[in-house]
Amino acid sequence: MSILIYTEHQDGKFKKNSLEAISYGVAIATQTGTDAYALVAGSTSATLSDLGNYGVKKVFHVATDNNNLSDTKFMSALVAQVAQEQQTDLVIFSNTLSAKGIAPRVAVKLKAGMISGAVDLPDTSNGFIVKKNVFSGKAVTEIKVLTANKVITLNANAFEVKETGGSAEIINLTPTLPVSSITITAVNKTAGEIPLAEAERVISGGRGLKGPENWGMIEELAKLTGAATACSRAVADAHWRPHHEHVGQTGLAISPNLYFAVGISGAIQHLAGVNRSKTIVVINKDPEAPFFKAADYGIVGDAFEVMPKIIQAVKELG
Ligand SMILES: Cc1cc2nc3c(=O)[nH]c(=O)nc-3n(C[C@H](O)[C@H](O)[C@H](O)COP(=O)(O)OP(=O)(O)OC[C@H]3O[C@@H](n4cnc5c(N)ncnc54)[C@H](O)[C@@H]3O)c2cc1C
User: Fold this and answer.
1) Is the CB of residue 136 less than 8 Å from the CB of residue 267?
2) 3-class SS at 31?
3) Cα separation of 104 and 22, whole Å?
4) Does the beta carbon of 236 sit less than 6 angstroms from any atom of ligand 1?
5) Phi-psi bin for 70: left (phi > 0), alpha (psi -120 to 50), beta?
6) Which residues does 95 contact at the CB level (< 8 Å), separation at least 6?
7) Is the distance from the beta carbon of residue 303 to the nearest atom of ligand 1 less than 6 Å?
8) d(CA 288, ligand 1 centre) in Å
9) Per-residue model confidence as pLDDT tens digits over 298-318
């Protein structure tokens, strides 16, 4: 079995999620005694051979207009064709928004069994068994993939980036590709913020903060700790914060190393999007708030008294 890792890039850089996917693919290759290769499409100012530093031996590069990277039909044709031509039988993606569109299409084209949202290395001692979270993160299931070809998407922050040293050989490929059916007319980016989906730390606020005018302390703590900001759905619905910050069952599902929840009750629909976080800290004035059951650390107190003290303490720590 050899392994192909679709490696996303943005603004000239490889995203941390992509490097996690590479490290994951390389670890499976080591475990099964095979090779792992990266696939990069489009142009990036990053040096492709540097991906060898994460353990891949070769980087397959397909030149294409970067606008095509958002076209899931186009990209699934590209990835599937490279997988077929290079005879790789496991294709790995980071479980990003774009991979959610591309990976299932690749699985259909390759007649592959697919696992979305893997959270650990597969058990390859007797077949190929992959772990993933189910029931909004309340349980973990193990799924045996029986097909010869396999597609896996890896959850963000589920596997650590590992630097191995080394440089990869770059191989330029020119697969026969369909004409993209999409024309991108404008790209609007939220500038200067840490993308919530891949943030390692998240400071989040709920209705307990009383109004949008009180978000200064959330933003200040986020800035001091290099965190992204998030909110409950109640907050986004009230237009206190933009909807792209809303986490939960109907919002973004995230898995940062630290989720810091201020004035959020911890309703089941909210927990569904955040309970994969490694460490959860909750500040709530109600000791019976359900969020405390999911918290690693809890502070029972008024956010307007507690937050300034935490901000001060973080400042003193430098
Ligand atoms: C189908 C469906 C899908 C949903 N999807 C989502 C989703 O994706 N994400 C989501 O978040 N919600 C979702 N909800 C809504 C969810 O059920 C809750 O209503 C919502 O999460 C509540 O938001 P909240 O905790 O900010 O507000 P509240 O429930 O009003 O809780 C506010 C909390 O702040 C505390 N508090 C008040 N004042 C202070 C203070 N001064 N200091 C400290 N603490 C204080 C209170 O004790 C309380 O626990 C969904 C609901 C449904 C029915």
Assistant:
1) no
2) helix
3) 19
4) no
5) alpha
6) 17, 116, 117, 118, 153, 154, 155, 156
7) yes
8) 14
9) 999 999 999 999 999 999 997
User: Token match 């990036």: residue?
Assistant: 44
Which one has a higher pLDDT value, 135 or 295? 295
Answer yes or no: is the C-beta of 234 below 6 A from any ligand 1 atom: yes
Pocket probe for ligand 1: among 229, 275, 284, 309, the residue whose CB has the most ligand atoms within 8 Å is 284
Q: Does pLDDT of 38 surpass 90?
A: yes
Measured distance CA(92)–CA(34) in Å, rounded: 14
pLDDT tens for each residue of 187-219: 777 655 788 888 899 999 999 999 999 999 999
Instruction: Quote the ligand 1 centre to 91 CA distance (angstroms).
Output: 39
Q: CA 171 → CA 34, 49, 56, 104, distances in Å?
A: 19, 10, 12, 26
With a threshold of 0.85, does the pTM exceed it? no
Question: Which residue, chain included where needed, has tokens 């300034």?
Answer: 308
Q: Judge whether 154 and 95 are in contact, CB under 8 Å.
A: yes
User: How far is ligand 1, taken at its centre, from the CA of residue 223, in Å?
Assistant: 24
Q: Which of the listed residues 246, 268, 270 should we mutate to test ligand 1's pocket, taking the one with most ligand atoms within 8 A of CB?
A: 270
